[in-house]
Amino acid sequence: MRIDIITIFADYFAPLDLSLIGRARESGLLDIRVHDLRSWTHDRHRTVDDTPYGGGPGMVMKPEPWGEALDTVVGGDPDTVTPRLVLPTPSGAPFTQERAERLSGEPWLVFACGRYEGIDARFVADARERMAVEELSVGDYVLAGGESATLVMVEAISRLLPGVLGNADSAAQDSFAPGAMEHLLEGPVYTKPPVWRGREVPPILLSGNHGAVDRWRRDEALRTTARNRPELLDEIPPDQLDQRDREV
Ligand code: 6GU
């Protein structure tokens, strides 16, 4: 997969050299290119923003650098694939695991990281004429810019690419992944030593009884969900709940 990121803070993306994503880039599974929006300005101050028409607080990002940046990154060849443009914004649709899965199937994504009060709407309208555009939010709070939201989305998408996770099974086991534990949050996990500061690992996890372990994990997932996200329990289709579930 190819991912282009356009930003005025290219240094913000240094973490993409590390860990899982760093290895995926080295192995060629991921081609991530970070671009400085200011390289498409032409004035001495490399201006990317201006005051909003209609008045009001803050600044708006000018359309010209964004338009030139997108033209350059996307290229002129109409025979090659066009990317999907992602606009991180608190006004966007919710970025969920389902969206991450869908986006992980795309060959090419471009993230346009806005700052200040956002990007001039004509840039978005112009882009929509040439490619699919998604405005996405990572949660109901306001960040200073799209950079940290882009890091979140790129990580969630990248780890779903075949070969990026060490254990091919681990993405399938995630909270929010489709399957038997869909709608449930994962419960507690344990590793060695068997006793730490007087606290034992739940003996069932040492029993070797896989059926009993699965049942215990489901019980704990139900308890964790009831405690932290009770509204998720209402999403579970009744036929996916057995008698034991209802007793937890
Ligand atoms: Cl994607 N951007 C900004 N600036 N703030 C946000 C957000 C995105 N998602 C939630 N808050």
Structural commentary:
It is an enzyme of class 2 (transferase). Keywords: Cytoplasm, Methyltransferase, S-adenosyl-L-methionine, Transferase, tRNA processing. Homodimer. This protein is of the alpha/beta class and 248 residues long. 31% of the residues lie in helices and 17% in strands. It has 2 domains: 2-158, Alpha/beta knot; 172-248, Trp Operon Repressor, Chain A (Orthogonal Bundle). α3 links the parallel β5 (84-94) and β6 (108-112). The longest helix is centred in the last third of the chain and has 19 residues, at 210-228. The model has no long low-confidence stretch (mean pLDDT 95). 6-chloroguanine binds at residues 88-90, 92, 137-139, 141-143, 145-146, 149.
- Mean pLDDT across all amino acids: 95
- Can you summarize the main beta sheet? 5 strands, parallel
Q: Radius of gyration, Cα only, in angstroms?
A: 23 Å
Strand order of the largest sheet: 2-1-6-5-7
Estimate percent helicity: 25-40%
Taken together, the total number of domains comes to 2
Globular, elongated, flat, extended or rod-shaped: what is the shape? elongated
Low-confidence stretches: none
The SSE string, one letter per element, is EHEEEHEHEHEHEEHHH
Query: What gap, in angstroms, lies between the N and C termini?
Result: 43 Å
Q: Considering the protein shown, what is the CATH homologous superfamily of the largest domain?
A: SPOUT methyltransferase, trefoil knot domain
Task: Determine the structural class based on helices, strands and strand pairing.
Answer: alpha/beta
Please name the CATH architecture of the largest domain: 3-Layer(aba) Sandwich
